[in-house]
Amino acid sequence: MRMDELPTPxxxxxxxxxxxxxxxxxxxxxxxxxxxxxxxKAFSCFYEYPLIGRYLKGTTASGLYEARLGYEEMGLExxxxxxxxxxxxxxxxxxxxxxxxxxxxxxxEKFKDRCGRAERGLRINPxxxxxxxxxxxxxxxxxxRLGVRIQDFREEYLPFIDGFHFHTLCQQDADALKKTLxxxxxxxxxxxxQVSWINMGGGHHITxxxxxxxxxxxxxxxxxxxxxxxxxxxxxxxxxxxxxxxVTQVMDVVENDGIRTLILDASAACHMPDVLEMPYRPPxxxxxxxxERAYTYRLSSCTCLAGDIIGDYSFDREAEPxxxxxxxxxxxxxxxxxxxxNGMALPSIAVMDKEGACRIIxxxxxxxxxxxxx
Length: 374
Hints:
The protein has helices spanning 15-32, 49-53, 64-73, 90-96, 105-111, 174-192, 213-227, 237-240, 268-271, 274-277, 366-371, and strands spanning 10-14, 35-39, 58-61, 77-81, 99-102, 119-123, 163-165, 197-199, 230-233, 244-256, 259-264, 295-301, 309-315, 324-328, 348-352, 358-362. By secondary structure, it is α/β, with parallel strands linked by helices.
């Protein structure tokens, strides 16, 4: 079927665009020798793992379930970082992970002798904030719980550390990475010769148009050439950036105080939580800014949350119940964060090939809602 024939709501993964992104990432690997991993926290549609595994070196996880998913469904190099590990989870993590990174010296001390074949990493905090306007995503903010500061680092732990890890970026260009590397070198430089790898985390918007790939590659080669380190990058968004849609249908049109609102069967709160959390206004196919086109509407949902508002958009014609709308860039941080608040149905998942043909790979129903509650 074509995308306009899909039942709604439905996520659609654009496999052509996904592969375009993967080609860019593979080229970075080939030119620099770095190893790029899929950050599953952004995109965990394991149906596409065979494709992703043909281009990238493996997966990275934020806990046991993601680690298991990467191990079972991609089966390549598998890393995990968590601010703290549960005692009962750790034996399984050592079975399915190649790298286990610790957030504190306390956690390293607790588990350092139980990692088995897995290499041990330590997350560091270079204390350099590069975020602008998104404090919720700043792991270098004062009082941050994420990573060990240089003033808290203890040299006696070096024999138990195979590599350092930092993750300070969010949807940023390579200039922020360069500034971060300057801080890492200034603070941890004496220790970089004593480990074998460095993981520069995620937040690198490598596949975004205009991203400074040359500078990224300079940063990677700098760590390789000066310190002899294997360099890891673990982008999530860059893998599936602009590679997905959320198809929704207009259910009703409501007008109040001069504002016309489209009631949709998709929800910001349930199906694209970053719209409210970030917040941001997601791109919508064949639409414009408010007032830019003839007919302006506020897009909302059929949940009870008054603030479940996606944004204001304009169209060339009046909207009617039954119309389908296509939100773009919905592969990342959508399926992994969605929920069933108000008993909302989870969107189906479809894939679209390079010719535009779609097929549904997963549907959800009442039992999916019910079984997670009791």
